[in-house]
Structures are given as structure tokens and as C-alpha cells.
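SAMPLE LOG
Freezer: B-3
Tube label: C17
Construct: single chain, 124 aa
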Amino acid sequence: MSKAMIVNDSRLEARILSDMLKMMGFEVILSDEIQALGDMKRFEPDLVLVNYIMKTIRGDALIGMMKLLQPGTSAVLTSSSELIMESFRHRRVDAILRTPATQEQVRASIRQAEEHSGHNLMVS
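STRUCTURE (predicted):
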């Protein structure tokens, strides 16, 4: 079973994404921008979904730090705004998911992250 970590300061959005990922067969934990790096070390997720705008840090910067800790993790940047993927490649973002999202949109962003990172997350 693949493991996913969601870092999002919106509890509702995090819960919705968590439920979708669980339905796809992921083991999921929720985190926030303060605990994310520590949670990443303990949980060792295969996939992270990180919100772009949070209170203390931008999601792309956090993803950059996460990839230093665990380079093999696939990373999806989430946002309610429309973001352009090419703007975030330097931070090692593997895919972008515009929220709110349907389960199929979540699945598509995970597939895009798999293709970019070269890791199979076994999404059901």
C-alpha cells in the first residue's frame, strides 16, 4: 500500500482529499506546514499533496525541502488558483492539482506525478 501525506491548512480540503486518497487505496496522514518535515521523516510517504498558500510558507518551498529529505517522494502542489506547472519545476514539483477537485482529477494529478517522478504509486 502506498502512503500519502497531505499538508494543508484548510481542514475541510485536507479531509476531502484524504477521503479520496483512502478510496484509491492509500494509507494517509494529515499534517500542517509546521510539522510536515518531522511527519515526513516518521511516515516516509510515497506521495505528498501540499497546499500552495499557507500561513507560514508557500507549498512549493516546502516541497523543495521535502525532496531534500526524501528525493523519491512524488509531490503534488494543490491550489484553488490556476497555477502553471513550468513555474514550479525548479522546486521539484511533480504535478499540480487545482482544488476543489473530483476524484478523477486527483487521480490524474497522481498519474502526472508518477510520470514526472518515475515512481509507480499503484493508484487503484
